[in-house]
């Protein structure tokens, strides 16, 4: 499958498995799962056709491992705006995690900390490189270190998704290290 088609199928899956399953008549179970055959049929009925082979290719080649397949079911690994319970156990984070953003967001982040916005949790990366790539999707990236050890000591709960994204409800600004030049 060519790269443009892979991206198109991946974005379609993300939209309907994370945000708008009802748009194509899907009902996710409490864990966010849906039968693959049901997904393919619903997409086809709504004018977007893809094969099981294309879906498998997207799942296995996506560098962010956005989707998980378990038997005959699929779900998004995280990033939902619809209500799901991913069933992730609480996890002890490494001392520091990282959040990629852009300079225009820094004043709001200083004032309000990191909020989940239209998602259930704030997404954090285990390394600067990943956070840099995340921030670069919106412009010139700024990486904010998060004192995850202090947050954890203070009672904040962390989870880690199957694809290594660290999740927490919010990150108050006192746990963030801001660059001096911004």
Overview of this structure, please?
Pfam families: PTS_2-RNA. Removes the 2'-phosphate from RNA via an intermediate in which the phosphate is ADP-ribosylated by NAD followed by a presumed transesterification to release the RNA and generate ADP-ribose 1''-2''-cyclic phosphate (APPR>P). May function as an ADP-ribosylase. Its EC number is 2.7.1.-. With 182 residues, this protein is α+β, with helices and mostly antiparallel strands. The protein folds into two domains: 3-76, RNA 2'-phosphotransferase, Tpt1/KptA family, N-terminal domain (Arc Repressor Mutant, subunit A, Orthogonal Bundle); 96-175, ADP-ribosylation fold, CATH 3.20.170.30. It has six helices and eight strands, in the order αβααβββαβαβαββ. The protein has helices at 3-19, 36-45, 52-61, 106-112, 128-136, 148-153, and strands at residues 34-35, 67-70, 73-76, 96-102, 122-124, 141-147, 159-160, 166-168. The strands form three sheets. A three-stranded antiparallel sheet has the order 1-3-2. Strand 2 (67-70) and strand 3 form a beta hairpin. Helix 1 (3-19) crosses helix 3 (52-61). The longest helix has 17 residues, at 3-19. The radius of gyration is 18 Å and the shape is globular. 26% of the residues are buried.
């Amino acid at each position: 499958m060519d790269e443009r088609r892979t991206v198109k199928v991946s974005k379609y899956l993300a939209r309907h498995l994370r945000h708008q399953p009802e748009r194509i008549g899907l009902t996710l179970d409490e864990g966010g799962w849906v039968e693959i055959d049901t997904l393919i049929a619903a997409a086809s009925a709504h004018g977007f056709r893809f094969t099981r082979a294309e879906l498998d290719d997207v799942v296995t080649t996506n560098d962010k491992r956005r989707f998980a397949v378990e038997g005959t079911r699929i779900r998004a690994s995280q990033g939902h705006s619809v209500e799901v319970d991913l069933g992730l156990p609480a996890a002890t984070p490494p001392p520091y995690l990282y959040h990629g953003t852009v300079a225009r967001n820094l004043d709001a982040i200083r004032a309000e900390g990191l909020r989940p916005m239209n998602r259930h949790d704030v997404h954090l990366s285990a390394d600067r490189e990943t956070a840099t790539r995340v921030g670069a999707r919106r412009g010139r990236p700024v990486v904010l270190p998060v004192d995850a050890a202090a947050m954890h000591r203070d009672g904040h709960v962390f989870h880690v998704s199957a694809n290594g994204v660290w999740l927490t409800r919010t990150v108050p600004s006192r746990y963030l290290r801001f660059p001096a030049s911004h």
